[in-house]
Amino acid sequence: MTDLDGRRCLVLGAGGFIGTNLCRALAAQGARVQGFGRRLQYPKALDGIPQTIGDFADRTQLARIVEGQEIVFHLFGGPRIASETPFGVLADIVSSVNLLEICRISGVRKIIFVSSGGAIYGVPSVLPIPETAVTDPISAYGISKLAVEKYLHLYRHLYGLEYTALRLANPYGPFQSATRGQGVVPALLHRVLSGEAVEIWGTGGIIRDYIYIDDVTDALIAAIDYQGPCRVFNIGSGIGRSVLQIIEDIRLILGRRNIDRVFRPGRATDVPVNVLDIGLIRDHLGWMPRTEWFDGLRETSSWLQSSQPAA
Q: Which are the catalytic amino acids?
């Protein structure tokens, strides 16, 4: 296990789903955590962990918060931009390059970047998808993630700035908003728990790789001290599940007789199938997902029923 006692860790995007869980996991292992983000979605969950509210595009503020940090976790640029116009992601790319320059000047030891295993590959030619697969994203979101990966490579080549990019599948779990388009699992659970019909885009046959948030934070922390030859790793379960299968599994764990469904037109940015090959991170970091699918669903359901986000 990575020794985090006293390590200075900055989490950019700390107020979101992954950031909230990561801050809590880092602090629990003794790290000196500093969070930075636009807002705290669940502020009570981060009690005792210093947080600064700010804008990722504010270079001056970003430079102040990066100063003195050892490890920087870059979580900004979430799937909210997946459906935006191609121009909508450009500001995030520019802000990310500004971050790399600030980290270089400030002497940051390593950047750990959350990329996208679901969007960066586009329509796959092989399944499960290895890190060596062709990257042809079909959304502006996927292109933005790939662009940041390329700049990370450039900054390591030119300046020796170390990084690890984790191409994340579809995470789910506590502190994920069910109403902001952040994830299929909480959105479906929320609708069923609220007695509403679930929305299905297309036929419901789209297949994705889903990973519980505790396994995600384990992988992020495992990447801190990794010094091997690889820079990019897939993070997922290695198992594909369709939307229709998830709905059926939700029906089973909640003991419902049936679930009402409303079908919507399919979306052009939806890749038909995406399942990640996780052999590389298993071999190099010793990481494997440890949360069984139905256990993760039950934990997420329980949290949704007992928690409400800040207004």
A: 141
